[in-house]
Amino acid sequence: MDARSRGLFITFEGPEGSGKSSQARALAASLRQRGLPVALTREPGGTPIGDQIREIILAPRNTAMAPRTEVLLLSAARAQHVAERIRPALADRQIVISDRFADSTLAYQGFGLGLDLAALRALTAFATGGLTPDLTIYLDCPPVIGLARKARAAQAGGEWNRLDQKPVEYHERVRRGYLALADAEPNRWRVVDAAQPADHVQYLINAQVGQWLEELWTPPPSSRS
Ligand code: TMP
Hints:
Blueprint: E1 8-13, H1 20-33, E2 38-42, H2 48-58, H3 67-91, E3 95-99, H4 102-112, H5 117-128, E4 135-140, H6 143-155, H7 168-184, E5 189-193, H8 198-217
Parallel strand pairs: 1-3, 1-4, 2-3, 4-5
The structure holds thymidine-5'-phosphate.
């Protein structure tokens, strides 16, 4: 990790049922196997305070939650996450992998719920102190496929939360939002087709991250001896 003065911050983003959490775990395992120090975390949550806020945000009974309440709770959890977990791990030169981060707020609360994107960006900058990911892996998946996967997993005891209950049009807007965000910042985002079998998706992610790490650690030609 000597090419940089701090660790690296990688985020996973994607709509419901895109397989993000399993793929984030798989990437963490593969980087650890290479001897790299990895901190794996998630949003909303990632800290004891954040996990309590997560319960309020996702509880199916909280149908009365106003969009601004939702975004302030998400931002509060994120502020705690950055202060308690992410910044210390980056200062310790670890590779932080977060299953969701601030782009989820732009996609879900911005494109999905229609909150003002500029206001969300300002709120996020306040919550994070300006921290942005170095690399974002976006697992793209049509909502009908992702929601069906999630419903099957829920029948087997998996989570089915308040946001999963929203209409499919909402999830379509979220997906379109993600694709617009990825288009706007191609250097940071890598889009992976997550409708493919999970082991192939994992292979593609490992290849993308491997290439990115190599480029990061290759000194520019002028500094080579
Ligand atoms: P998960 O299913 O990936 O654990 O995420 C929990 C839910 O929270 C998911 O429906 C997406 C939602 N979410 C937002 O709406 N905005 C956010 O900023 C974050 C981090 C998550």
